[in-house]
From TrEMBL:
GO terms (BP aspect): proteolysis
Family: Belongs to the UPF0758 family.
NCBIfam families with a match to the protein in the record: PRK00024.1 (NF000642), radc (TIGR00608)
Highest taxon of source: Bacteria
Protein name: JAB domain-containing protein
InterPro entries: MPN, RadC_JAB, RuvA_2-like, UPF0758, UPF0758_CS, UPF0758_N
Key words of the record: Hydrolase, Metal-binding, Metalloprotease, Protease, Zinc
Organism: Chitinophaga silvisoli
Stretches assigned to the MPN domain: 113-235
Molecular-function GO term, any one: metallopeptidase activity
Amino acid sequence: MGTIDSLAGHLPIKDWQTDDQPRQKLIIKGTEILSDAELLALLLNTGHKHKSALLLAQEILSKSSNNLQELGKVNVNQLKKLRGIGEAKAARIVAALELGRRRQAGFILSKTKIRNGQEAALYFKPILGDCSHEQVHVLYLNFANTVIKDACVSKGGISSAPADVRVILREALELGATSIILCHNHPSGNLSPSQADILFTRKVVQAASILDILVLDHIIVSQAGYYSMNEEGIMNEEKPASRLIRENNSPVGFPVLRMAIA
């Protein structure tokens, strides 16, 4: 009997030995035994002419440098450019990858509390980390840092996604949120905030303070990791160090700096 690779290009999967067929391997031995290509072949279900589903899956992965993170960036139209991939196959692949993202994000959100910038980044990274365009999201929380809602407030292009401060704060008031966390992605992979990012953050902080709403952090995510404006100390305009105090009742993990009252 030939190897799996040799079988992949010459015989339909249904004609393989039962133990070699990805579906039967999954049922008998479990998902962990299957390669990425075999799992993808199960989604494809069928191949194309003299090309089995497994060989087609290997070609798809090869186009993404055999990297699932890269594959997660492709859309239906990009997949359809590959010979043997129609709209139905492309849609199944994109849907499966989106389910994976939502599962990962749901794990964090199911904890109901976001206690620090790292946990916020862990929630947002699977949602925004491999987006090809910028999006701005807001997590709305109550006083105990319990998540009330995650809302996408802006979608933009490759390098910007303007968001309306009024929309952000109106939603906070309607939800009864006492604090919010801002987050957006940088498709370029560069995690450093732009001057526009910093000015926008400070604008939200100032406007929210009038409504007694705390802006706990502004997180920037990419596949490379995350950047926390709160951790880097750039949430507010620079003040004389001697005039700053740390509030003892600040939410855990999100110290809030305010000007001391003379």
